[in-house]
């Protein structure tokens, strides 16, 4: 009995093989539908004279609007710094073995999360009605509350203390995400609890803390608009002053909204790259950047199609 060996397939010298991705017509159809509806809505908004786009263009770079933006950014930064510092402190207190410390931290968090931030702002603004003179329990100190608690100070206290309660839970979740075995190993080596928290736990917890902190920062930026009720000249209040004089309410609200949208977009981009940086130690392959995703979407050939094979199978 004889067997025949099938002839081997030979590769023609210089032959090229192109790997083409599978086509997805449904994606293009859905994209076309979304773009069509989006275009119709955009055209309706831009061609509607009631929006007052000429007024929007005139006041978009108004000096008072620019000053309001600076106040908004300053309030956001200061309040987030205060909130982050308080969040770390009270998160560590919540995890303390001392029941009194744990209870005090829980009471703070429960109070500031359980009452609206607008109520807290109004409370701090009217603090002089309760304590006209602030002594801090120290003899010889008599501070006039009306001069000490200015609208800007009340805004910082209200936003910062409220944010500290939310940041506390975010930081606590990040700390609990770290394997407890590392804490036990640090204790076995004689490292103090504070050193363990500062040098071992918190750096690893940042991977969990950063994403919600970015969301809280964006939320804080928009929450600063609440301080307009206590006459702090931030972005929304500056717009309100203008439309109270010109009666151009809708265009001025559009001006404020466009600036809020621009700033939040910049913060979102910064948050994305910050998350990507802290994810380097835990992910083998980092998620692609928006530019990489866009390039991949419009590419039609796989990377293999760019390689020409020699007769021996290697790159030519």
From TrEMBL:
The chain crosses the membrane at residues 28-46, 66-93, 250-274. GO terms for molecular function: transmembrane transporter activity. It is a multi-pass membrane protein. Belongs to the binding-protein-dependent transport system permease family. Pfam families: BPD_transp_1. Its main location: membrane. This is Amino acid ABC transporter permease. The keyword Amino-acid biosynthesis does not apply. One of its GO terms (cellular component) is ATP-binding cassette (ABC) transporter complex. It is found in: Cell membrane. InterPro entries: AA_ABC_transptr_permease_3TM (IPR010065), ArtM/GltK/GlnP/TcyL/YhdX-like (IPR043429), MetI-like (IPR000515), MetI-like_sf (IPR035906). It comes from the Bacteria. Gene3D superfamilies: MetI-like. Keywords: Amino-acid transport, Cell membrane, Membrane, Transmembrane, Transmembrane helix, Transport. Residues 69-271 form the ABC transmembrane type-1 domain. One of its GO terms (biological process) is amino acid transport.
């Amino acid at each position: 009995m004889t067997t025949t060996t099938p002839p081997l397939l030979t590769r023609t010298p210089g032959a090229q093989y192109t790997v083409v991705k599978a086509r997805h017509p449904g994606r293009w159809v859905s994209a076309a539908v979304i773009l069509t509806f989006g275009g119709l809505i955009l055209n309706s908004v831009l061609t509607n004279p009631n929006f007052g786009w000429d007024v929007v263009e005139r006041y978009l770079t108004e000096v008072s609007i620019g000053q309001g933006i600076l106040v908004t950014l300053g309030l956001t930064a200061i309040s987030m710094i205060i909130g982050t510092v308080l969040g770390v402190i009270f998160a560590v207190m919540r995890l303390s073995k001392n029941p009194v410390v744990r209870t005090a931290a829980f009471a703070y968090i429960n109070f500031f999360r359980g009452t609206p931030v607008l109520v807290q702002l109004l409370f701090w603004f009217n603090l002089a009605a309760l304590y006209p003179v602030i002594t801090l329990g120290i003899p010889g100190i008599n501070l006039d509350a009306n001069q000490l608690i200015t609208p800007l100070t009340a805004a910082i206290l209200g936003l910062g203390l409220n944010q500290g309660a939310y940041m506390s839970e975010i930081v606590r979740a990040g700390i609990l995400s770290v394997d407890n075995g590392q804490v036990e190993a640090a204790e076995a080596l004689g490292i103090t609890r504070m050193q363990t928290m500062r040098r071992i736990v918190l750096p690893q917890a940042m991977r969990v803390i950063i994403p919600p902190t970015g969301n809280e920062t964006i939320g804080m930026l928009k929450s600063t608009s609440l301080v307009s009720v206590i006459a702090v000249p931030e972005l929304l209040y500056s717009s309100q002053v203008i439309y109270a004089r010109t009666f151009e309410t809708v265009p001025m609200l559009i001006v404020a909204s466009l600036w809020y949208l621009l700033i939040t977009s910049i913060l979102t981009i910064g948050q994305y790259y910050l998350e990507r940086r802290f994810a380097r130690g835990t992910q083998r392959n980092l998620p692609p950047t928006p530019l990489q995703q866009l390039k991949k979407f419009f590419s039609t050939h796989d990377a293999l199609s760019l390689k020409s094979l020699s007769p021996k199978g290697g790159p030519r």
